[in-house]
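Late entry, written up from scratch paper. The run itself happened at the end of the previous shift, but nothing got recorded in the book at the time, so transcribing now.
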Amino acid sequence: MPDIIEKLTITELVQSWAMYRDIGDWERLRRTVHDDATMTATWYHGSFDGFIDALQASWRKGSRSQHFVGSTVLEIQGERAIAQTRMSILVRGLLDGQVVDVTSVGRFYDWVEKRQGTWRIAKRCVIYEKDRLDPVNPQAAIQLDPEMLEKFPEGYRHLAYLQTKSGGVVNPNLPTASGPALDQLIAQSHAWLHAV
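Output as recorded:
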């Protein structure tokens, strides 16, 4: 059975990622991941360094989001671990002239690896389970294009809609609460975890 210190170390690592990302502490954020780490989200897929560069560019334009994290569940095998962390993403944006909030609920799905005695994230994916879009002014009338909305999976439909309307390019094939993308992620993760 893994040591409780190992479990606490990994849990703190995956949970501190959200705080450093949200407050723009880029150096501490970099220290949560290995040098060759990758990141996959609705609007980004690639190296973690590229992810931070894209975040910084977004910040310069005034974009902000918040990540609230809940419990973390770990599956540890030697010096590898899969960490699943409950989370919510809160995004405020402008949609057709109206200020809106999107709330996306799901989980971070991290491949974590201990290298040279240090646990860090090797790969972070997001599983999107449900979301909603609300006008900040409850009296505002918002009309969503149903055809555009239907292009994206139910798990992150409204988040993708806002990001697309803001000029982003969103991957329509990410893991949601169920389906082939989730099955594939879990199968790949378990193969990686037990390949040591």
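The chain has six helices and six strands.
(Scratch paper discarded after transcription.)
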